[in-house]
């Protein structure tokens, strides 16, 4: 592919970058388009061709294979494509004819609800709110005041969704699915012995009433109050009154039982305990919340969300909205200070016995031990950002992904199987597809970069080929032409029908290349805003890597398990810094 075609691919991907970067224009006072109005006109999620998916899979596993391993896998794939795979593919096509999204239910169940390991670190995503970057630096004595203002903006966002005044997202002129935004509020995951469930009570105004209460957790105790009074959302002074009451109830008093710790447990254990904890009054039943805003004593904020109901972009969009509203008002409330008469928060009291208290203690200990093993580093690279990369006609996200591949290659002497999130929201209820950045082209470029005798021209050509391949694969994944979800569908059909598991899914290279959730590098672009997040590694010997790209900086959070002798998140970030400098230097001197 020549440079003109590479530039064309780059421009095609710019539409996605614009979606991530232009969230400031996401609402209007008199919108011409309603938030969910295009849901029924979105195209169904397509099923890729079997031949195409298997061919792409073979190319994807090549960087991890010896010649002998590759020949064995190629034979396995050939047998699958000519035999069992054909039958499974036909069954998948039949399923797709009766569903607008053949993957939706499968994905929710297999990726989230049926998983039995603890959700808190293995599934949930979380991170800081961005407010400390401008008007809200760490400050003592302002926690409740800031929380009331932040909560008010969050409630305004809830109201935007209720009244459908949040503009539908688009990539260029392509409308994107907005269904996940229905899951941000009024949603919880309820534990089950073999499978969890998602319960959602959100409704738009045209659909009817929906819950409007807020639950506040403080020192292991729970309080609830209605955030709407006489049809109007409580103002920051009114919210401050409610929060002050909660704090006064907890000050100088023993901490509560800390029932929330149970949500960090292994899912089946939590489900069995919940049957004891949650019997009685059904109005106080509580599950794993879709969105938790964390307020700290120094006036800073964080968040933690269950990943099952939605992807990170929902939280990013919401947090960026709040961030920009705070920035526009300098983090201050400039409205009425009047506090209307209203009921005070009501404490939610759980009836627990010694057995449940023992389970809570066990959950706390398990969670503490696990978090102590997690290494988390979060740094801002400020030498350059999106502006400098785009000046060289390179896609910023691809730039970071290839820099990460080079960083891992430098540190470990080999490439790491890598997952990058590709969104499929142009399809009905689309969520994600896997994009695999570890390509043969990336492998060759990394090898060339570390060859002392390699010329700048050889490095430039190898870099360009790696960029082109990455951009091509990302565009395919976003357009329903990836292969990982397709293979998952074939796997699940075989499993549901009790058929022998095809050799393709037990072959050595399937797991070695990242298949089955075994990617060494679990990565995602959080966007081009001020919001960042973090995620734990997919595998024990791997890394979690979230990043955001600003005009003049790249901010990344990198995680690894301390108990793994192979990984070091700090070292990986420092290698990333070196790689970023080397790449920009190469792009500059070669005048790409």
UniProtKB/TrEMBL annotation:
Keyword Lipid biosynthesis belongs to the record: no
Q: State the GO CC annotations.
A: peroxisome
User: Superkingdom of the source?
Assistant: Eukaryota
* Gene Ontology biological-process annotations: fatty acid beta-oxidation
| Family annotation (Pfam families) | Carn_acyltransf
Q: Which residues form the Choline/carnitine acyltransferase domain?
A: 45-278, 280-576
Q: Which InterPro entries match?
A: Carn_acyl_trans, Carn_acyl_trans_N, CAT-like_dom_sf, Cho/carn_acyl_trans, Cho/carn_acyl_trans_2
- UniProt keyword Metal-binding, yes or no: no
> What terms describe the molecular function in GO for this protein?
carnitine O-octanoyltransferase activity
Q: Which reaction does it catalyse?
A: 4,8-dimethylnonanoyl-CoA + (R)-carnitine = O-4,8-dimethylnonanoyl-(R)-carnitine + CoA
Which keywords annotate this record? Acyltransferase, Fatty acid metabolism, Lipid metabolism, Transferase, Transport
Q: Which family does it belong to?
A: Belongs to the carnitine/choline acetyltransferase family.
Protein name listed in UniProt: Carnitine O-octanoyltransferase
- Which species is listed as the source? Oncorhynchus mykiss
> What is the taxonomic lineage of the source species?
Eukaryota, Metazoa, Chordata, Craniata, Vertebrata
């Amino acid at each position: 592919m020549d440079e003109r075609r590479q530039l064309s691919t780059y421009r095609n991907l710019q539409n996605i970058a614009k979606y991530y970067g232009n969230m400031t224009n996401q609402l209007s006072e008199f919108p011409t388009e309603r938030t969910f109005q295009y849901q029924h006109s979105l195209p169904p999620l397509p099923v890729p061709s079997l031949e195409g998916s298997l061919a792409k899979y073979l190319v994807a596993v090549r960087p991890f294979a010896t010649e002998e391993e590759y020949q064995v896998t190629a034979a396995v794939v050939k047998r699958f494509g000519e035999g069992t795979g054909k039958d499974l593919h036909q069954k998948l096509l039949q399923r797709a004819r009766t569903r607008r999204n053949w993957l939706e239910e499968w994905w929710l169940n297999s990726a989230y609800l049926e998983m039995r390991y603890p959700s808190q670190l293995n599934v949930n995503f979380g991170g800081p709110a961005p407010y400390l970057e401008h008007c809200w630096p760490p400050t003592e004595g302002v926690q409740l005041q800031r929380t009331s203002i932040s909560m008010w903006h969050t409630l305004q966002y809830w109201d935007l969704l209720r009244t459908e005044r949040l503009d539908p997202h688009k990539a260029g002129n392509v409308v994107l699915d907005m269904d996940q935004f229905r899951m941000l509020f009024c949603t919880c995951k309820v534990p089950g012995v073999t499978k969890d469930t998602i319960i959602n009570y959100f409704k738009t105004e045209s659909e009817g009433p929906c819950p409007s209460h807020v639950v506040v957790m403080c020192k292991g105790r729970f309080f609830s109050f209605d955030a709407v009074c006489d049809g109007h959302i409580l103002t920051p002074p009114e919210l401050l009154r409610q929060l002050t009451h909660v704090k006064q109830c907890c000050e100088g008093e023993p901490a509560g039982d800390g029932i929330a710790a149970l949500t960090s447990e292994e899912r089946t254990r939590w489900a069995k305990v919940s049957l004891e904890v949650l019997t009685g009054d059904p109005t106080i039943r509580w599950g794993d919340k879709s969105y938790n805003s964390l307020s700290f004593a120094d006036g800073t904020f964080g968040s933690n969300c269950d990943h099952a109901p939605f992807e990170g972009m929902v939280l990013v969009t919401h947090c960026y909205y709040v961030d920009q509203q705070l920035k526009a008002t300098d983090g201050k409330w400039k409205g009425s200070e009047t506090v209307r008469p209203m009921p005070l928060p009501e404490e939610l009291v759980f009836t627990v016995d010694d057995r449940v208290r023992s389970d809570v203690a066990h959950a706390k200990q398990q969670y503490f031990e696990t978090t102590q093993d997690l290494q988390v580093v979060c740094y801002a690279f400020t030498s350059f950002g999106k502006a400098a990369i785009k000046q060289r006609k390179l896609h910023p996200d691809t730039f970071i992904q290839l820099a990460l591949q080079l960083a891992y290659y430098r540190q470990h002497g080999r490439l790491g199987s890598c997952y990058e999130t590709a969104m499929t929201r142009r399809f009905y209820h689309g969520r994600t597809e896997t994009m695999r950045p570890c390509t043969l082209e990336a492998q060759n470029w990394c090898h060339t970069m570390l060859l002392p005798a390699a010329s700048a021209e050889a490095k430039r050509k190898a870099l360009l080929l790696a960029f082109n391949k990455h951009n091509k694969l990302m565009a395919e994944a976003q357009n329903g032409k990836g292969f990982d979800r397709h293979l998952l569908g074939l796997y699940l059909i075989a499993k549901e029908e009790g058929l022998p598991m095809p050799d393709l899914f037990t072959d050595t290279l399937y797991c070695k290349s990242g298949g089955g959730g075994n990617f060494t590098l679990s990565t995602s672009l959080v966007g081009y805003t001020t919001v960042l997040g973090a995620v734990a590694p997919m595998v024990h010997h791997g890394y979690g890597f979230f990043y955001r790209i600003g005009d003049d900086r790249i901010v990344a959070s990198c995680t690894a398990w301390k108990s793994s002798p192979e990984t070091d998140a700090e070292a990986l970030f420092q290698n990333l810094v070196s790689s970023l400098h080397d790449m920009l230097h190469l792009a500059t001197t070669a005048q790409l």
